[in-house]
Write a structure and sequence with these properties.
By secondary structure, this protein is α/β, with parallel strands linked by helices. The chain has nine helices and eight strands. It starts with a strand and ends in a 5-residue tail after the last helix.
């Protein structure tokens, strides 16, 4: 990725944004900024922000914009983001997108690509409701796609596997409703700025990755 590449990954929960962001981070000189990871860490550590965020995350609602914007603004200033960044899970609303524009303007930067992952609702529900996490090491499994050798037990450390509350089917459905109402309009916001590229998010990780690389086009060195 050319120096200074600044990319946003859009898509519903479970669309594969995090997986693709990590692959891009490994391949190119860019940092990955995942608001989901930042928030989950804050929740696990029971920080004041984590306690506030948990009230929203547990019911599949969006964390307030001011909290998220403050987190992202601070992260963008870290040295590892100087060569470029990949935003995964932010912005989620048009006000957040406008805040991001202002943050970047103050840094004399701008986005140069927004990738929107397209995945059917039924596929998302299957992906998320089947996920299981290890209570001990945080390892991730899936009852269909990557099951543990022994049901309910982590292959890595032997810890207990559980279903996160935000992966329960009812919560997943609510998260998708929230996405359609509040986040999907971002596609038009970025389409009007000629930044949006839509990606078919169904297929193997490598197949989707190839589509992502193609969509980056001139940003790929």
């Amino acid at each position: 990725m050319a120096t200074g590449a600044r990319v946003v990954l859009l898509g519903p929960p479970g669309a594969g944004k995090g997986t693709q962001a990590k692959l891009l981070q490994e391949k190119f000189a860019a940092c990955q900024i995942s608001t989901g990871d930042i928030l989950r860490k804050a929740v696990a550590e029971q920080t004041p922000l984590g306690k506030e965020a948990a009230q929203y995350i547990d019911r599949g609602a969006l964390v307030p914009d001011d909290v998220i914007v403050e987190l992202v603004a601070g992260r963008l200033k870290d040295k590892d983001c100087a060569p470029g960044f990949i935003l995964d899970g932010f912005p989620r609303t048009i006000p957040q997108a406008e805040s991001l524009d202002r943050i970047l303007q103050r840094m004399t930067l701008s986005l140069n690509r927004v990738l929107s992952m397209q995945v059917p609702r039924s596929v998302i529900i299957e992906r998320l409701s089947g996920r299981r996490s290890c209570k001990n090491c945080g390892g991730l499994f899936h009852v269909i796609f990557s099951p543990p050798a022994k049901e309910g037990v982590c292959d890595r450390c032997g810890g207990e596997l559980y279903q996160r509350q935000d992966d329960e089917e009812d919560t997943v459905a609510n998260r998708l409703d929230v996405y359609e109402k509040q986040t999907a309009p971002l596609a038009n916001y970025y389409r009007e700025r000629n930044l949006l590229r839509e990606i078919d998010g169904v297929g193997t990780v490598d197949e989707i990755r190839a589509r992502v690389i193609e969509a980056l086009g001139d940003l790929v060195a």
